[in-house]
Amino acid sequence: MALIFVFVYKNELREDKRFLRASLSNASLLAEVCHQIFKGKVFYPTENALKTTLRESTCYDYMAQSHYITETLSKEEAGFPLAYTVTIHKDFGTFERLFRAIYMPQNVYCVHVDEKATDTFKNAVKQLLNCFPNAFLASKMEPVVYGGISRLQADLNCIKDLAASEVPWRYAINMCGQDFPLKTNKEIVQYLKGFKGKNITPGVLPPSHAIGRTKYVHQELLHQKNSYVIKTTKLKPPPPHNMTIYFGTAYVALTREFANFVLQDQHALDLLSWSKDTYSPDEHFWVTLNRIPGTCVSLNFCSSAAWPHGMQAWRVLRALPFCQPQPTQSWVSD
């Protein structure tokens, strides 16, 4: 039985007999964590055991000290490179752990930093990515508003950059800064191979509570301290090309062929334009395009995964399926 777990550290913890507090060396930390988990206890180190050395080191020393994988581990992985888009806005340490966990030299990585993020954060991310020839910042940054078109546009900016990459990636996986992988790169590759060129875009016809998201016009409001989306009473026109709108998760795995379709096909361009004043368009954009009758069949990217099975598939790949930015502790056994 393999145990894969995720830690997010807290600065302050209440006293509890079930919480073990300790400051351990890096070498003994993992063993102690496993021991306490198998005893049914929750383990919280009192300090960050994975302190970054980036600011004080050369790239070579940093990669060595942080135990980055710098050589492809198998022929199978070399023949099936992946692309990642990661959208972030805070918590550099959390992003650093995520990036270290998903990094492989044969893959390619596009990172979108919220335009509203601090200069300190932006510079730290840039310094990190400069150490890796197959990782880069998105060519265009958006001021991201949760629930707005800017969140989808951030992913699309990276998808466009990745489509121009010389790396022959097979699938693009989008993540946010609070994600963490549940599987190794090889396990992810083997899992994606089973979809035989189909996308992972789980979704369903719109439930009643979601109809208003695309029925009424919504607007992004940008403020210095708080940005949000408001709903108006103005009705939207019908979707373009008589499309049926589906709803699903914003986090998907897309083939390169589908990525090119999204960037170039008129159906996709028109749906994007129509979606700009909807609520959380990233939750209907991918899944709707992946279910256009006729088009997806002719291009062989239709998804056969309904919501329950599609979500099971996606949970294989990630720890936090809906990217909730909150402290969590989870483990999965298989």
Automatic annotation (TrEMBL):
Family: Belongs to the glycosyltransferase 14 family.
Name of this chain's protein: PREDICTED: n-acetyllactosaminide
Stored InterPro entries: Glyco_trans_14
Single GO MF annotation: acetylglucosaminyltransferase activity
Pathway it works in: Protein modification; protein glycosylation
Entry GO CC: Golgi membrane
PANTHER family linked: GLYCOSYLTRANSFERASE 14 FAMILY MEMBER, N-ACETYLLACTOSAMINIDE BETA-1,6-N-ACETYLGLUCOSAMINYL-TRANSFERASE
Gene Ontology process terms (BP): transforming growth factor beta receptor signaling pathway
